[in-house]
Write a structure and sequence with these properties.
about 400 residues; odorant binding; membrane; sensory transduction; transmembrane helix; olfactory receptor activity
């Protein structure tokens, strides 16, 4: 089944674009889809030239990472250099993890996209007022992601253009088995690093844009489920059934379909967790590393204020919207039990319906959340905990570096 999914999505790509564009929640996937298509990594693409390109970029970035990481070896005694290199090394490794998921686990992502497109109920099943509210909320969340994207582009522009203006350095400090600063060789190496650095920047942020959009859409789908089950025994519920299925169906049949929809949504969220748990774990590590390293360098080297402050802000925003989206998913999945309880079940004479409600309430007791490889649930509490951890590492590193500098001055 998984092998057929990419063909299904590709064959209906025009319908896919049209349908998600007409839904107030699903349309926030469009920017991420456009960026990933431009980068040739949208999960429904299987052409041979794209496969060759993907493997080429994967190997290319591995070489980029190795040459950059090797720079630490001869400069291990220089703490500021090691810390600065650590920022870009972890960011590049972040690319490798996310690239691996989006390219080599495309069957899981295709299944998620297919469910969102074909199985998720449209937002328009709600009242116009609620549709407008949820659509506006989704737009605000998309702007948050685009804000972080902008910071990443600013940072990439700083690190890629500044060295060329001085004509003395590479974009990222690296070691090569040849003399890279010769005429023409420097230009070739610089161009290679320039293209690779921009590709890394765009892919990391485009991956985040798609992932966060899918999580937000799933959270909104829980809100749709809540509204439908809350109205299941009312006239409004009958109108919703006719809108969804173009026919009148009984309360019992509607509740069965609601249960199937809830099960499908939970399965989709579990697939999300399966696909993204490792990238999330690495994202936590990169955010901690980026925040600590940039803050330490700001402390000891004021000349890199613009570059390091941009890195710090980008890492804070990136971690924040991961936690924000996961927290929203958790809250909406928890609210489902309240909606089930307040569905006016007491007016129903169907005992099977009431017994089924008890089972549904039990199923809703466990809220859904994104985790870092199953170790840490992403929410606002974990966000604050990570910031505190970053501050602790920052204090430790600055004390260590300052003491080393003072000892060197005394000598």
């Amino acid at each position: 089944m998984e092998e057929e999914l990419p063909h299904k999505i590709r064959r209906l790509s025009k319908d896919f674009n049209r349908d998600i564009s007409n839904d107030g929640a699903k349309r926030i996937m469009i920017p991420g889809k456009i960026f990933l298509e431009c980068l040739l990594v949208w999960p429904d693409r299987e052409m041979k030239y794209i496969t060759v390109f993907n493997w080429f970029m994967f190997i290319n970035v591995i070489i980029f990472e190795i040459t950059h990481a090797c720079f630490v070896v001869p400069n291990i005694a220089d703490y500021t250099t090691v810390i600065a290199v650590l920022v870009t090394v972890t960011a590049t490794f972040q690319f490798l993890v996310k690239f691996y998921v989006i390219v080599f686990k495309k069957s899981i992502i295709n299944q998620i996209l297919l469910n969102i497109w074909r199985e998720y109920w449209p937002l328009s099943v709600l009242s116009p007022k609620k549709v407008k509210r949820h659509s506006s909320t989704c737009k605000v969340k998309l702007r948050l992601i685009l804000g972080c994207y902008t910071l990443a582009v600013i940072f990439a522009a700083i690190i890629t253009f500044a060295p060329f203006l001085t004509n003395t350095e590479l974009i990222v400090k690296s070691i090569f088995p040849f003399q890279w600063n010769k005429t023409y060789t420097y230009e070739l190496v610089y161009t290679w690093q320039f293209v690779t650095a921009w590709y890394i920047t765009f892919l990391i942020n485009s991956f985040d844009m798609l992932m966060i959009s899918v999580v937000i859409i799933s959270a909104v789908q829980f809100a749709v489920l809540q509204n439908v089950v809350k109205n299941i025994l009312t006239e409004k519920g009958e109108r919703q059934r006719r809108y969804l299925y173009n026919k009148d169906i009984s309360n019992q049949d509607m509740f069965k379909r609601w249960l199937e929809q809830q099960r499908m949504l939970i399965d989709t969220c579990n697939k999300l967790e399966e696909a993204f748990r490792i990238p999330i774990l690495h994202q936590l590590f990169c955010s901690i590393t980026g925040l600590c390293a940039s803050s330490v360098i700001l402390k000891v080297d004021q000349s890199k204020f613009l570059e390091m402050s941009t890195i710090a802000l980008a890492n804070m925003f990136q971690l924040f919207y991961y936690c924000f989206a996961s927290n929203e998913l958790t809250l909406q999945s928890e609210k489902t039990s309240d909606a089930v309880y307040f569905c006016n079940w007491q007016i129903s004479q169907d005992m099977k319906f009431k017994k089924a409600l008890v089972l549904v309430l039990q199923r809703c007791q466990k809220p859904l959340s994104l985790t870092a490889a199953g170790f840490i649930d992403l929410n606002f509490l974990s966000y604050i905990a990570v910031l505190r951890l970053c501050f602790s590492f920052y204090t430790l590193l600055t004390d260590l570096i300052v003491s080393k500098l003072e000892a060197a001055e005394l000598q």
